[in-house]
Amino acid sequence: MVEIGSQSTERHAPTPEAGTPHGEVCDLVTVPVRQGLEAVDILRRGGAPVVGPVLHDGACHTLGFLVPPGTAEGWDMPGSACTQTSGRGLRIPELPELPEPAAGGARPASWLLPPGDAGEVTDPAVLREALGQAARLIEAADGCR
């Protein structure tokens, strides 16, 4: 099961040997989609592979950044949440191709940056900085309207 924010989508049975880089269990930082997309852009412009796999929910309300296990214990950034998975299903192999949703149905969660296209899991300190910068950019842009 892949969970992002309050969205939950049954995908496949997770397997211990397949998964995120090195088969590790990861925590998941979720943020509003607008802030998350800004943060992804900030991280990718940095040049080094500092952004790891990123999920988006089916309704496109949140993005989820995979971060090292244990990050949730100290995560306190306003406007975001970090879920400690404790091995409860966040060993995520590459997601299979899925059919389009039925008319009116919610789209399933999927990858924005899948494992393999992204670096290892995102460093929490780097993510915190990018999310802060993204929030300031959004606030400035919204203030110009």
Describe it.
With 145 residues, this protein is of the alpha+beta class. The protein is 26% helix and 19% strand. It has three helices and seven strands, in the order E-E-E-H-E-E-H-E-E-H. The chain has helices at 33-45, 71-74, 124-143; strands spanning 2-4, 7-9, 27-32, 54-56, 62-67, 81-83, 110-113. A five-stranded antiparallel sheet has the order 6-3-5-4-7. The protein has a two-stranded antiparallel sheet with strand order 1-2. Helix 1 (33-45) crosses helix 3 (124-143). The protein is globular and about 45 Å long. The N and C termini lie far apart (40 Å). Residues 1-22 and 93-99 have low confidence and may be disordered.
Write the layout of secondary structure elements.
Layout: E1 2-4, E2 7-9, E3 27-32, H1 33-45, E4 54-56, E5 62-67, H2 71-74, E6 81-83, E7 110-113, H3 124-143
Helix pairs in contact: 1-3
In summary, what is this structure?
With 145 residues, the protein is an alpha+beta fold. It is 26% helix and 19% strand.
| N to C succession of SSEs | EEEHEEHEEH
Strand content: 15-25%
Mean pLDDT: 75
Which ranges are low-confidence, i.e. pLDDT below 50, for 5 or more consecutive residues?
Answer: 1-22, 93-99
Class from helix and strand fractions = alpha+beta
What does the largest sheet look like? 5 strands, antiparallel
Sequence of strands across the biggest β-sheet: 6-3-5-4-7
Number of strands: 7
Principal-axes shape call: globular
- Span of the ends, CA to CA: 40 Å
Quaternary assembly: single chain
Tell me the radius of gyration.
15 Å
Number of helices in the DSSP assignment: 3
Estimate the helix proportion, in percent: 25-40%
